[in-house]
Design goal:
Layout (H helix, E strand, L loop, with lengths): L4 E3 L7 E4 L4 H13 L9 E4 L3 H9 L11 E4 L2 E4 H9 L17 H19 L19
Parallel strand pairs: 2-3
Antiparallel strand pairs: 1-5, 2-4, 4-5
């Protein structure tokens, strides 16, 4: 992942690509679903990086398809990684969580260092599932693949 932001054309709704077997990542998705801003004209969509859709996105950008060190946010025709994806995602959350997006003022190399440390230890700290989390029938329409 050479650049934090890559050009991308896909959807009018932002899409969060996450590691489907990571307990921390699944927790983030569930947190976002519970805390998403209600007045969003563009509801978030989700897909695991292991899904066919996630794999196609990774392949189309020459990104590793078997190493999931970052979740990815596709928003406004841009692809965001690591801490940039996390803080951009915050703008879609209810107050007070939406205010976390102001932390983008921290230099990228510092925030990505913290992000990478958590990413490197997430399976050890939070565990891992044998298979991807399956959304409830009510949420199924928000998940791609």
């Amino acid at each position: 992942m050479q650049s934090t932001v890559l050009s991308y054309k896909l959807s009018t709704s932002p899409i969060l690509l996450f590691d489907g077997v990571c307990n921390l990542c699944n927790g983030v998705v569930q947190f976002v679903l519970k805390n998403e801003a209600e007045n969003s004209e563009r509801p978030l969509l989700f897909a695991s990086l292991q899904s066919q859709f996630g794999q196609q996105i990774l392949q189309s950008h020459n990104l590793p398809t078997d190493s999931f060190k970052s979740f990815v946010l596709l928003d406004n025709n841009q692809l965001y990684f690591r801490s940039s994806a996390a803080f951009r995602l915050c703008k879609y959350l209810k107050f007070p969580w939406s205010w976390l997006s102001v932390l983008q003022i921290i230099p990228t190399f510092l925030r990505d260092s913290v992000y990478q440390f958590v990413s490197d230890n997430r399976y050890r700290w939070f565990g891992k599932k044998e298979q991807c989390w399956i959304p409830t029938p009510e949420l199924k329409s928000r998940f791609l693949d």
